[in-house]
Amino acid sequence: MELTPEQLVAEFQDAVMELYFARKRIAHLEAENGALRRRLAEAAPGDGRPGTEA
After folding, report:
1. Contact present, 25 and 16 (Cβ < 8 Å)
2. What angle do CA 14, 21, 35 make, to 5 degrees?
3. What angle do CA 15, 17, 21 make, to 5 degrees?
4. How far apart (Å, rounded) are the C-alpha atoms in residues 21 and 12?
5. CA angle at residue 29 from 27 to 30, to 5 degrees?
6. Could you read off the pLDDT of 1-37 as tens digits, one per residue?
7. Beta strand residue intervals within 1-54, DSSP E
């Protein structure tokens, strides 16, 4: 299948938009992960590793 230059540009723009939203989602998930790790660290005794309970 051969694409016209206009189709190639449209495909590229779609890929850029998908990457943009994927990066936003990754940043959101990283922030959520960090918050959950902090909550877990506050709730658990020790430093979270087996055998390090207080």
Report:
1. no
2. 170
3. 115
4. 14
5. 65
6. 899 999 999 999 999 999 999 999 999 999 999 999 9
7. none
